[in-house]
Write a structure and sequence with these properties.
By secondary structure, this protein is mainly beta. The protein has 3 helices and 15 strands. The chain binds ligand 7R1 and zinc ion (ZN).
Length: 263
């Protein structure tokens, strides 16, 4: 599906370099989630996800992460509720991680770094006809961020981990079906922070309502090591570069309010 951000690659340096600053960006991502700056909002509703595993299509390496892509031509896999007024369609999910278990997440909580972060990307299908439209609009996207921490092996993630060697190089794709991304969500879906932000790679558009879940999911050290076995580089390139540290540097809050769904 078009949400796979194929055209974004050309704007990124071959290696994972800090994407160009968004000129005059007032609501850039990622940020540190400072607990004392967060404001409890009792009007925030529970998140409602309805994912149909039959919409899962493929996993591919786009040269800066690996994306699991969903058929977003119908309302079969959706997100609504929480801070959202409209219904959003799941189009892909991907991860950001570090070269070791010390860092890797894009967001932090009181400066606490996690080894990785999952992004479930949804676009506003009530207001826009296409993903490409939605990424240019301030209420166009809703991304659920889930922190990963090292612990017991994540059985649901293992099916995806087993598929990764097939997409080791940039631009490789492999069929990947019947995967329900709900298995990657923590038990507690009603504790989250939300703020107005942006894409964290070019085009860096300020289109994202971020929903960052408080509860991290546990994955094993070995599972993260398979993430790190992927490459930024295509099979033809002489020098192979490990796909690690594919996160953006944090951006200024610029007066934004971070709301929490819990006190
Ligand atoms: C052209 O549209 C794009 C481009 C890039 C990404 C991926 C970025 S944005 C994010 S969140 N995390 C990432 O790595 C998109 O995802 C919504 C959408
Ligand atoms: Zn991301």
């Amino acid at each position: 599906s078009a949400c796979s951000s194929r055209f974004v690659r050309s704007q990124l340096h071959p290696m994972w370099q800090e994407p160009l600053e968004m000129p005059g960006g007032e609501r850039q991502s990622p940020i540190d989630i400072s607990l004392q700056k967060s404001v409890f909002d009792p009007n925030l509703k529970p998140l409602v996800t309805q994912y149909d595993p039959r919409t899962c299509q493929q996993v591919w390496n786009n040269g800066y992460s690996f994306l699991v892509e969903y058929d977003d031509t119908t309302d079969k896999s959706t997100l609504r509720g929480g801070p959202l007024e409209d219904q959003f369609r799941l189009c892909q999910f991907h991860f950001h991680w570090g070269e070791n278990n010390t860092w890797g997440s894009e967001h932090t909580v009181d400066r606490h770094l996690y080894p990785a972060e999952l992004h479930l990307v949804h676009w506003n299908a009530d207001k826009y006809a296409l993903f490409e439209e939605a990424i240019m609009e301030e209420n166009g996207l809703a991304v659920i961020g889930v922190f990963l921490k090292v612990g017991k092996r994540h059985e649901g993630l293992q099916k995806l981990v087993d598929a990764l060697p097939a997409v080791r190089h940039k631009d490789s794709v492999v069929e990947f079906t019947k995967f329900d991304p709900s298995c990657l969500l923590p038990e507690s879906m009603n504790e989250y922070w939300t703020y107005a932000g942006s894409l964290t790679t070019p085009p860096l558009t300020e289109a994202v309502t971020w929903i960052i879940l408080k509860q991290a999911i546990e994955v094993s050290h070995e599972q993260l090591a398979v993430f790190r076995s992927l490459l930024f580089t295509s099979a033809e390139e002489e020098v192979q570069k490990s796909m690690v540290n594919n996160f953006r540097v944090q951006q200024p809050l610029k007066g934004r309010t971070i709301r929490s769904s819990f006190s």
